[in-house]
Amino acid sequence: MNVTILGCNSALPVIERFQTAQIVHFREKMFMIDCGEGTQIRMRQFKIKPTRLNHIFISHLHGDHVFGLIGLISSLGMVGRTADLVIHAHPDLEKMLQPQIDYYCAEMSYKVIFESIDPRKHVLIYEDRSLRVFSIPLKHRVPSCGFLFEEKEKPRHIIREMIDFYHIPLKEIPFIQQGADFITEDGTVIPNERLTRPATPPKRYAYCSDTAFSKRIIPWIEGVDLLYHEATFLHTDIVRAKATGHSSAQQAAEIARDAHVKQLIIGHYSARYDHIEDLLAEAQAIFSNTRLAFDGLYLHA
Amino acid sequence: MNVTILGCNSALPVIERFQTAQIVHFREKMFMIDCGEGTQIRMRQFKIKPTRLNHIFISHLHGDHVFGLIGLISSLGMVGRTADLVIHAHPDLEKMLQPQIDYYCAEMSYKVIFESIDPRKHVLIYEDRSLRVFSIPLKHRVPSCGFLFEEKEKPRHIIREMIDFYHIPLKEIPFIQQGADFITEDGTVIPNERLTRPATPPKRYAYCSDTAFSKRIIPWIEGVDLLYHEATFLHTDIVRAKATGHSSAQQAAEIARDAHVKQLIIGHYSARYDHIEDLLAEAQAIFSNTRLAFDGLYLHA
Q1: Cβ contact B59:B207 at 8 Å
Q2: What is the ipTM of this complex?
Q3: Looking at the complex, does the CB of residue A50 fall below 8 Å from at least one CB of chain B?
Q4: Most buried among A55, A61, A240, B68, by the most CB within 10 A?
């Protein structure tokens, strides 16, 4: 599971940072989280082809997270896309976007399907053979939710030599991968632990933006491999952070520490800061394995 | 009168070229023509402050010319703008944009005023003390018009020595600047040509995009100092140009030549061309004083 940051500034873009958008790459698939203005430009600049992009998850309906949708949708139509595109978002998005699609993208070659999210609930919102995506209720000025990308439990690793040794028929292998013991013809039980090694732990990526400091999210993101948490402000601007429903870098790091995540990426920087390294220093004082997001950053969960 | 190109690609952006947007600088004022996605980002990248931007002229309602408006409007609100912003466009724009402004830009600190353009007519659409802007009806798949920015006739230059020599009272100067003769106390008529030199010719800039080849526009742009004319295609793709209501580079140059313009800038390139220099060569074969637009180009009319 990998993530490409397409944009990581907050309300206003700056020269080198667009507004929020990310790509989650998982096996052969590609998912988008949020879609700020210029997302389609960033995809071209970072050489990300949208062919395998079929699902977009929108955290909330502030402009800096959605204004790139109509341009992306329009351009996908112009290049003759045929696969459906599913947008998971608060139901108001459809009301705002469908009239624009009808007007600007007449006779499109593909369908845009809106799937409604209730951002107040922690629920499964997407599932396929190998992945689940859950909503993470956040605390913001408007209904907002993060997303937890969770690889499904993988099968246990078969120990080839043991399979050969006990002459285990191939049809039994899937059951053994799932943890079943094997019973030989003479009735001897061979415990699963002798036949397999534990599965590689499933990867988990959590995206939490936009949100004020909210301890409520900790159980949902406990132990994730990678957490993207907004850090719009320095803690010296905590009054402004609270008033606008955002977090400080210190608060992002406290969440990462208390949720025992493996790595923290901070982003959604306010345009007021010329030196975002100050945000990094503030977070690292609390949670050392923190990195700064930047447009074009590609990282492993 | 100066022009900054913010974006000059056509329907699809490419890595180094955003979709259409331009700034016309005239004395202390600033005007925008079209507003493709990412225009606000380009303004920051090219260090153009929007403070003095009060009028935006939209040629037509294709997405690549308007998708940047909502982001720009929203960001201007966030930085506390108070001055009205007037958008001159086909009346459908207001229908599409006002609901978005109402939803995404609640309680904005300034007003967006829509002024309706009838793109089929060549009429005065803006006027102030020193400038007039006219619409130029174009030929496209949807109603489309270009814009002619025309500096007003300037006063004649006073020859200071003559004013002193004839002891002309200061209150007479404005009349003499406008071409009046001076009559001395003894009744002698001093012809204006002895007191003044001709005014500097008013500058004129014409923007013609999007449009198929249309000789009809020639009288309206006759002799302009600078013409921006779309050149979406090479002439070898003329069938596609006609089908989509666009021009070839050759056709843009023919218009420039037949209208006796001083300089031609071509742009609105199709994303299919890797070497836009081919478009330049094609145009220069017909009209040598041609330049290629690029994002960030700043030029004098």
Answers
A1: yes
A2: 0.92
A3: no
A4: B68
How sure is the predictor about A106, in pLDDT bands with cuts at 50, 70 and 90? confident
The span from the CA of B26 to the CA of A206, in Å, is 50
Residue A107: predicted pLDDT: 86
**Mean per-residue pLDDT, A71-85:** 96
- Number of neighbours of residue A192 by Cβ within 10 angstroms: 16
Length of chain B: 301
B61-73: string of b/e by CB count within 10 Å (b at 16+)? bbbbbbbbbbbbb
Compute the average pLDDT of residues A22-48.
97
- Residue with token string 């246990």: A156
CA of B202 to nearest chain A CA: how many angstroms apart?
A: 36
Q: Does A31 touch chain B (CB under 8 A)?
A: no
Q: Residue B107: is its pLDDT beyond 90?
A: no
Mean pLDDT of chain A: 96
In this structure, what token pair is assigned to residue A143? 């209904």
Question: How many C-beta atoms lie closer than 10 Å to residue B88's C-beta?
Answer: 23
Which residues from chain A sit within 8 angstroms of residue B44, using beta carbons?
13-15
Which domains does chain A show, CATH number per domain? 2-153+200-300 (3.60.15.10), 157-197 (no CATH)
Amino acid found at A76: L
Task: For residue range B262-283, list pLDDT tens digits in order.
Answer: 999 999 999 999 999 999 999 9
- The reported pLDDT for the residue numbered A57 is 98
Supply the pLDDT for residue A3: 98
pTM as predicted: 0.93
Query: Cα distance from B44 to chain A (closest Cα, Å)?
Result: 6
